[in-house]
Write a structure and sequence with these properties.
alpha+beta; 71% helix; five-stranded mixed beta sheet; two-stranded antiparallel ribbon; 585 residues
């Protein structure tokens, strides 16, 4: 089918006002002083400003204007800098011949004028030029493929200059770049780690915490690719410590940490923690999307208000002029007011449509979250069914019991996601409903539907993450009661209490689960509560170790005691910002 299509005009970011204002100031001063060197600098600043918006064509036009003024005056550091930026512009636009010509010229002028800064930049851009696959995997046979030897040659030249200048920061940066080079092209482990270690040592010596953290994250990623998980974890934890101490609370950094933690736990087989970090990464991305959406709405609102104010100011100016005139001027005023009315009405209609669109997007997001919770719930139900089928074919009682306990743990998570799916708040759980359903499900699984239960649960809402940890703990305690407290008890009873309180500093949640069984041996537990390295830790069963781990995830403290039966108590804070709590602890 034949037809016509109009190419869409590319959309660029608006120029940053302060950069544009500075370029305008330099331009006006150059015109006033009739200084061609200053005028060339103004054109260069305009080129930089439009390059940052993504409008590379307009940027190149300004840079070429600057070149026409500077080139007749002979070689200078400013001319080398200009050729260098033109070369970078050409690399981004995939213009190989232009990039090679401009950057080579920049290197020649920098070497003649002795500008170390321009030599450093030009050698780095030559390395980028030779490291790029201009042939696009052979699709463009007339253009070169990556040249690793050339890349390494120019990196070595930058390294030599940094050593001569005794610039530790520049030297550390190029050591890291050379390490990246060996990772990309050669896979030479010894050289890669040698350069990374040198860079890390220099960054630490100069107390460059951000650069140290970034390099440790890169090393953690490399060690994971090499399946060296101890080394990867060491680097990851060291980077996390720097991030917490320096309070690098930036979206991009949080995203990198969550990606690496998810990758680490996935590769080491800890699927629960891998899932948790994947969820945190997804939440970060959703939060970033919402922030971008809110920023866009705010910007549109401000632009609308500014346009409206401009229109009103113009109307007032015209009104003052028209008042001094006769009947003809009054007619013109009426006409202008009518035009303004329709402009305002049109802008109002546009704003109304944008508001409806944003509301629709919010509803779609809510629907997506509900659908996700529903799918997770269904998947967990499927896993629970598979575990039941597996237990049916087993003959070993211990294996059957282990499968059943695992199924109950999965079922507790499924109950949580069912509550999230049914709940209007999406990310919070109503504890009375959740804990009652959880206890009923466990008692039913062990055949104790008629056990006397005393449930006193305050109307507390918890986040989904906290409810997950709490649900796994309650699952373990009630399961232990069914296994050890009820079988030889003529009148088994279960008591579950949960409520909130405030210690004057912050809100807390307190959980109590008690049975009327014969009790349990509390000596190993008492020892491990006071000393985490106590050898009794290895004697604890999986369930008790799970309770200990989940309590730590809640930043809470727990205790077992005997009071006419086994009693479990847990207190944990209702912190909104768990990162702040981690820093405090």
């Amino acid at each position: 089918m034949l037809g016509f299509a109009f190419a869409q005009e590319p959309k660029f970011l608006p120029p940053q006002p302060h950069k544009l204002l500075y370029a305008d100031t330099v331009y006006r001063e150059a015109i006033a002083r009739k200084d061609t060197n200053l005028l060339a600098e103004a054109f260069y600043l305009y080129g930089k400003t439009y390059e940052s918006t993504g409008d590379l064509i307009t940027s190149e036009r300004w840079l070429l204007k600057s070149l026409r003024l500077l080139e007749p005056r002979g070689n200078s550091p400013e001319l080398s800098r200009l050729y260098n930026r033109l070369g970078v512009n050409a690399i981004v636009r995939n213009k190989y011949e232009e990039a090679l010509k401009y950057i080579t010229r920049s290197v020649s002028i920098a070497e003649q004028t002795g500008s170390r800064l321009n030599m450093d930049r030009s050698y780095g851009n030559l390395a980028n030029l030779h490291g790029k696959d201009w042939s696009e995997g052979g699709k463009r046979p007339g253009l070169p493929k990556p040249k690793p030897d050339s890349v390494f040659y120019y990196y070595q030249k930058i390294k030599q200059m940094a050593e001569q200048d005794r610039d530790s920061v520049r030297l550390a940066y190029i050591q890291k770049e050379i390490g990246d080079f060996f990772w990309t092209y050669h896979g030479d482990r010894a050289k890669l780690l040698s350069y990374y270690d040198k860079a890390l040592t220099l960054y630490r010596a100069k107390k460059k915490d951000r650069e140290t953290m970034d390099l440790q994250l890169r090393l953690a990623d490399y060690y994971m690719d090499m399946h060296e998980y101890k080394a990867a974890w060491k680097m990851l934890e060291s980077a996390q410590k720097i991030c917490i101490e320096r309070q690098y609370n930036v979206f991009g950094i949080k995203q990198i940490f969550e990606e690496l933690y998810s990758k680490y736990y996935s590769q080491t087989g800890n699927w629960r923690l891998a899932f948790q970090h994947s969820e945190k990464l997804r939440n970060l991305q959703v939060s970033n999307y919402r922030a971008d959406r809110d920023l866009t709405i705010s910007r549109l609102g401000k632009e609308f208000e500014a346009d409206k104010k401009d229109v009103l100011l113009k109307a007032k100016d015209k009104e003052l002029i028209l008042r001094s005139k006769a009947f003809k001027a009054q007619q013109r005023l009426t006409f202008v007011l009518i035009v303004l009315f329709w402009v305002t009405a049109g802008l109002s209609f546009v704003f109304y449509r944008l508001s409806k669109k944003n509301k629709k997007i919010s509803e779609q997001n809510e629907l997506l979250v509900r659908e996700q919770n529903h799918r997770v719930k269904n998947n967990l139900q499927a896993i629970s069914s598979l575990l039941s089928l597996q237990s049916d074919v087993l003959r070993d009682p211990g294996a059957i019991m282990a499968i059943e306990e695992t199924r109950l743990r999965v079922q507790s998570i499924a109950i949580l996601h069912r509550k999230l799916y049914d709940n209007k708040e999406l990310a919070r759980v109503f504890l009375p409903d959740f804990l009652k359903d959880l206890a009923k499900n466990i008692l039913s699984a062990y055949g104790y539907e008629n056990v006397r239960t005393d449930l006193k649960i305050s109307p507390v809402h918890l986040s989904a993450d906290k409810a997950l940890h709490l649900g796994l703990i309650v699952n373990e305690i009630v399961t232990n009661a069914c296994k050890y407290a009820f079988p030889k008890n003529n009148k088994p009873a279960l008591r579950v209490e949960c409520g909130d309180f405030n210690d004057g500093k912050q809100p807390w949640v307190r959980l109590l689960v008690a049975d009327n069984g014969p009790g349990m041996d509390l000596a190993p537990l008492a020892a491990t509560e006071t000393d985490a390295s106590n050898p009794h830790n290895s004697q604890l069963g999986f369930g008790l170790r799970l309770i200990k781990m989940e309590s730590e995830q809640l930043y809470g403290s727990y205790k077992f005691s005997y009071e006419n039966g086994t009693v479990f108590r847990l207190d944990f804070p209702q912190y909104k910002d768990e990162t702040a709590l981690a820093i405090e602890k």
